[in-house]
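Q: Structure tokens for this one, please.
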Amino acid sequence: MAQICREHSISEPTFYQWKSKYGGLEVTKLQRLKHLEEENRRLKQLVADLSLENQVVKEVLRKK
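A: Here is the predicted structure, written as tokens:
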């Protein structure tokens, strides 16, 4: 175990966290999970960008 962790430059606690999170998943389910996490990240960024844009528009309208 320690050798594998050294080869991949991760700590043993990190390995066990990954194992508990991804250990029982098949490759297709893991790929789907990664895809959904990436999509979720993009959507959160989109919401943040739109919220900021909305705030700027409201500020401009308030000044007029």
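A few notes: The chain has a mean pLDDT of 93. Residues 1-63 form one domain.
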